[in-house]
Amino acid sequence: VSPEIEPRRVRSDAQRNLASLLDAAKDVFATTGVDAPVREIAARAGVGVGTVYRHFPQRADLVVAVFRTEIDACAASAADFTARLGPGEALTAWLHRYSDLIATKHGLAAALHSGDPAFEPLPDYFTARLGPALGQLLDRAVGAGEIRPDVTVDDLISAVRELSGSGDRDRVDRMVGVFAEGLRVRV
Amino acid sequence: VSPEIEPRRVRSDAQRNLASLLDAAKDVFATTGVDAPVREIAARAGVGVGTVYRHFPQRADLVVAVFRTEIDACAASAADFTARLGPGEALTAWLHRYSDLIATKHGLAAALHSGDPAFEPLPDYFTARLGPALGQLLDRAVGAGEIRPDVTVDDLISAVRELSGSGDRDRVDRMVGVFAEGLRVRV
For residue range B62-112, what is the model confidence (pLDDT) as tens digits? Predict the structure, then answer.
């Protein structure tokens, strides 16, 4: 094994560990909440508790990393939808994707209001990542004449967040669907 | 003045007093909140503080009476809209009216969670009065083929309440408008 290859394999193992740790933490947070025991997260990820603490000395660091990862994935989905769907459909698909993000962020609101400074950058990160992603979808759909031009990124971020607060996922999905339908320009 | 007429005039004076008291209390609650001083309410209604306490020995009684009156007016507006507007337009107009009721009920949520037993019947009263009013509008609009048939009274009561929570009335109005538009069947 050449010294050029070995560090890469180690790095890629570490990255896989980190990715499965973040994935496990996301699932455990979603079911048990952000106060779930670290050993539960470690067990689900198939790593030792020490690995968790080595990556994330504080629980808040892990919570922040999970939500950054989820926000990044939601922002990145905008490009996927744009590539696969027409302007109006892409916007609708993304609003549902964003609604899922809101609906599954169990305990994040409580964490954000806990006063822990580790969480302070999250709301800005949320806005900085999701705002431009939605902005591009909205510009494209309004430009194509498919979506009414009198709504803003802030309107949509707020309205879909409000509609996604209840626990009933089926209702949330239908109501976000109604709202997205209302954005369409009648032909 | 005959003894038959006098009691009626007295009763009608008392009713006018009560109506202007409820009206004044509604305005004061909307600006100052449900903990506003009784003297402020009495002054606005043009009655003495004693009159307020005679009608409503406890502040909670006055709060309950104001919200029952507002709920009644919102329920009654359904018939007005039905008489004046087409099925779809009547539903849209009522959803805006209901949104206004939610948006202006300053302090009611806090009052409802205060644990005062006087408030206990209010949520049931809200549902019992507004549910059937909306149900008739929805049945008529769905029956006319103007509104999609896959939404329920509970869906609309919840969704419009959620959209009406923010403080920005202009945005609330536009977002409720988008939502109502999404209920329309495309022609």
Answer: 999 999 999 999 999 999 999 999 999 999 999 999 999 988 776 676 777
Mean pLDDT of chain B: 89
Taking only the tens place, the pLDDT of each residue in B8-46 is 565 677 788 889 999 999 999 888 888 899 999 999 999
Is A128 touching B (CB cutoff 8 A)?
no
The answer to whether the CB of B74 falls within 8 A of the CB of B115 is no
Tell me the angle at which helices A153-163 and B169-183 cross, rounded to the nearest 10 degrees.
Answer: 70
Which residue out of A99, A155, A162 would a mutagenesis test of the B interface target, given it has the greatest number of B Cβ atoms within 10 Å? A162
Closest CA to B112 of B121, B103, B104: B121
CA A13 to chain centre: 24
Contact B178 A183 (CB under 8 A): yes
Q: What is the Cα–Cα distance from B34 to A47, expressed in whole angstroms?
A: 55
Inspect the interface and report whether the beta carbons of B178 and A182 lie closer than 8 Å: yes
- B159 and A158 within 8 Å at the Cβ level: the answer is no
